[in-house]
From TrEMBL:
SMART domains referenced in this protein's UniProt entry, alphabetically: RhoGEF
Domain DH: residue ranges: 26-201
Pfam families linked to this entry: RhoGEF
Biased composition (Basic residues): 377-399
Example of a GO biological process term: positive regulation of cell migration
InterPro entries cross-referenced by the UniProt entry: ARHGEF39, DBL_dom_sf, DH_dom, PH-like_dom_sf
PANTHER family, A to Z: RHO GUANINE NUCLEOTIDE EXCHANGE FACTOR 39
The organism of origin for this protein: Gadus morhua
Region feature (Disordered): 305-417
UniProt GO MF annotations: guanyl-nucleotide exchange factor activity
Gene name per UniProt: arhgef39
The protein's name: Rho guanine nucleotide exchange factor (GEF) 39
Length: 417
């Protein structure tokens, strides 16, 4: 038993006819709006080509390479859209977009160069006084309707997004039996690809700006933020909880797609900047929840990073190796001593051979005394310095041997109150 309206049912036939009429009215409205906006779009492209591209090339206000960098393929785009306008004005929407889609590579070239063109244009406006005056005079023309050149150069990317919505509406309101249905649906897919390309370029550009901002916030060149393939995720303050003690220190953390950067705020001369302390590769990091919820104010996380160093040990690896291999006491160097006062035997004119033997005995006695003084005073700075030198000596002696050192850092983090 079927509940669908039959063909012979007057009420069912009227419902279907009403739906078709609504589709026809919407399609007519979309087509009319497409024609009007296409006319205005072609007029604006003509303004750019006539008053900027052609005249700048003729007057040589800008070098030809600069003109090409700023305006790219906008002249070819204008020619392509003039042909499309002729078809849509005559009602041949499917045929017009079918011939328009093979010319979309001109739009690809333009949108890929769009952000570089903005940089070149801004640089020329800053240093080229003649071009700056010429641009202001052209924009004052009544044909521009208070539009700036920067706004006109963004029109091709904006128009692609408009084409995407127009073609979707036209495809939805066109019957599958209509010959234009396949033409419009194919054009909708091709234009959607260019629209996704524009969105990807915009995201990449915004990510580059974020990386550049963070790089400028970090003082010095210790941490390199700008790197191909790196994406900025988020930033924020966390409290680093020490393993011993009760006071947690606030630290700024920058999270990227491949690393986590820990930094602290600089002093008054550089109050708006941070000094990058550590950079932890995410591929070597593990995060464990100690207690609480990560979305609340009381969560506590433990982050451990394992770093591998190939070759000679550096940093903490040097200190660990130095503690594991203490230097023999007989080879340790003593700190610089003050010059000893002359002995009474030397002042009385003792024999040179006896005097030399006495000096050697005195040096040996002083060396033993200094070594005992260092051991008893627990001077860690002196011990660490000499051990560090010894470790580097051992490392350079085995420079041809590949050594891998693993260093583990653990952070305990909590959200600030």
């Amino acid at each position: 038993m079927s509940f669908s309206p039959g063909v012979n049912d007057p009420s069912g036939a009227s419902v279907i006819q009403e739906q078709r009429d609504r589709w026809a009215r919407k399609r007519s409205r979309v087509a009319r709006e497409l024609v009007l906006t296409e006319q205005r779009y072609c007029q604006q492209l003509e303004l750019v080509n006539t008053y900027f591209v052609e005249i700048l090339k003729a007057k040589e206000t800008l070098r030809p390479s600069v003109v090409e960098s700023v305006f790219s393929s906008i002249k070819a785009i204008h020619s392509v859209n003039q042909s499309l306008l002729v078809h849509v004005e005559n009602g041949y929407l499917g045929r017009g977009f079918e011939q328009f889609c093979p010319q979309l590579p001109h739009y690809n070239v333009y949108v890929d160069n769009m952000y570089d063109a903005r940089k070149v244009l801004a640089a020329q406006l800053k240093k080229n006084r003649g071009f700056r005056r010429y641009k202001a005079l052209q924009e004052a023309r009544p044909e521009f309707r208070d539009c700036k050149l920067e706004d006109l150069l963004n029109l091709p990317a904006q128009r692609i997004h408009q084409y995407k919505h127009y073609l979707q509406d036209l495809t939805e309101t066109t019957s599958p039996e209509d010959p234009e249905f396949q033409q419009l649906s194919g054009a909708a897919r091709a234009v959607s690809e260019v629209s996704c390309r524009i969105q990807d370029n915009a995201r990449s550009h915004q990510n580059h700006l974020q990386l550049l901002r963070v790089q400028r916030l970090l003082k010095g060149r210790r941490t390199k933020v700008l790197a191909p393939g790196r994406w900025f995720i988020r930033e924020g303050w966390l409290r680093r909880v020490p393993t011993k003690g009760v006071e947690a220190t606030p630290r700024m953390f920058f999270l990227f797609s491949d690393m986590l950067v820990q930094a602290k705020r600089c002093g008054p001369p550089h109050g708006g900047k941070f000094s990058g302390q550590h950079a932890y590769p995410l591929q070597d990091c593990t995060v464990d929840k100690v207690f609480g919820h990560t979305r609340s104010q009381g969560g506590l996380l433990s982050e451990a990073a394992v770093q591998e160093h190939d070759g000679p040990p550096t940093g903490r690896a040097v200190q660990a190796a130095a503690k594991a291999r203490p230097r023999p006491p007989a080879e340790r160097r003593t700190p610089p001593r003050h010059r000893r006062p002359p002995r009474e035997e030397e002042e009385q004119g003792e024999h040179p051979t006896d005097r030399q033997a006495g000096r050697q005995a005195g040096r040996q006695t002083d060396r033993q005394t200094d070594r005992q003084t260092i051991t008893k005073s627990h001077n860690h700075t002196v011990k660490h310095t000499h051990t560090h030198r010894h470790t580097h000596t051992r490392t350079h002696a085995r420079a041809n041997k590949q050594v891998t050192h693993r260093d583990t850092h653990t952070l305990r983090l909590s959200k600030p109150a």
